[in-house]
Amino acid sequence: MYRLVIQAPEIATPDLKQLARLSDAYEIQAITPQAFKLLGAQIDNEEAVADFCESNQLDHAFVPEDLGLADIGLVVMDMDSTLITIECIDEIADLMGIKPQVAEITAAAMRGELDFRQSLTRRVALLAGLEFDALQRVYDERLQLMPGAEAMLKGFQAVGARTLLISGGFTYFTDRLQTRLDLSRAIANVLEVEHGKLTGRLNEDIVDAARKRDELIRYRDELGLARQQVVALGDGANDLPMLHEAGFGIACHAKPKVQAEAPFKLNHVGLDGALNYFR
After folding, report:
1. What is the per-residue DSSP string for the chain?
2. Which of 42, 39, 33 is nearest to 5 (CA)?
3. What is the pTM of this model?
4. Average pLDDT value for the chain
5. 26 CB contacts (<8 Å, ≥6 apart)?
6. Cα torsion at 169, 171, 177, 181 (round to 10°)?
7. CA–CA separation, 47 and 22 (whole Å)
8. 205 noted as active-site residue
9. Is 80 considered catalytic here?
10. Which residue among the candidates 15, 24, 66, 78 is catalytic per the annotation?
11. Domains of the chain, with CATH numbers?
12. Active-site position among 15, 51, 66, 80
């Protein structure tokens, strides 16, 4: 049996009752004022539930009733536009006055219209000559955590879950976030620097979609976890392989391609909505 988790800033009681009817749930319980669980839900009518939730701007998830928060052993996250609100490379480009050109390539790559490796190489090349110290301005002045990020991490960390931040972005930012948020691991691309300036190249192999999936599998196997003990969060097309590899692959305010293909979605609440799946 499943619990059907419903989340939104405001949830009408009649909507909960209709969802209980659609899913054959026998009880409605509040998790928070913005989250409810419908116990004993059946997935036979999942399509009707999904259509109703989409029409009424509700996030939903069917979760096995015997799975609790303490069962989650690994949380894997993308960084840009997932854990944080910005695309770091676009903000770096803004310091050079070329944000529109870079942001256009970024958006196309995240929609899955461009090969990620090629698009990143093109974008990084445009940053050549920028003072390395300028990255600190992006971190200090522009980088903000996504709503609910800290609450989500603290909730999973409290039960002993490990955390992996893996990004097609840059170690300059992931390393700082790892320290700030007490993350278990952080993996990203290394910007090449010579004489205090960006060269427009990367130092090591690019962190692409396949690498994200592979690192999730590697850490999961190292920890001896089952697939359903892993949560993954992302927003771009390069996150889809890792979202499919996790027991709970969640598209977070994601691009249309990711919305269409990801197993789970959060569109109307913050990242802490992932915690409510298991409460």
Report:
1. -EEEEEE-SS--HHHHHHHHHHHT-SEEEEEETTEEEEEEE-GGGHHHHHHHHHHTT-EEEEEETT--GGG--EEEE-IIIIIBSS-HHHHHHHHTT-HHHHHHHHHHHHTTSS-HHHHHHHHHHTTTT-BTTHHHHHHHHT--BPTTHHHHHHHHHHTT-EEEEEEEEEHHHHHHHHHHHT-SEEEEE-EEEETTEEEEEESS----HHHHHHHHHHHHHHHT--GGGEEEEE-SGGGHHHHHHSSEEEEES--HHHHHH-SEEESSS-TTHHHHTT-
2. 39
3. 0.95
4. 96
5. 20, 39, 40
6. 110
7. 10
8. no
9. yes
10. 78
11. 1-66 (3.30.70.260), 69-279 (3.40.50.1000)
12. 80
Token pair of 7 as six digits = 């989340």
| Burial (Cβ within 10 Å: 0-12, 13-18, ≥19) of residue 217 | middle
- Give 202-222 pLDDT, tens digit per residue: 998 899 999 999 999 999 999
> Could you tell me if residue 228 is left (phi over 0), alpha (psi between -120 and 50 degrees) or otherwise beta?
alpha
Query: To 5 degrees, how large is the angle CA 146–CA 65–CA 259?
Result: 40
- Tens digits of residue pLDDT in 61-114: 999 999 999 999 999 999 999 999 999 999 999 999 999 989 998 998 889 898
Residue with tokens 């480009």: 93
Phi/psi region, residue 183 (left: phi>0; alpha: psi -120 to 50; beta: rest), is beta
CA distance 131 to 51: 50
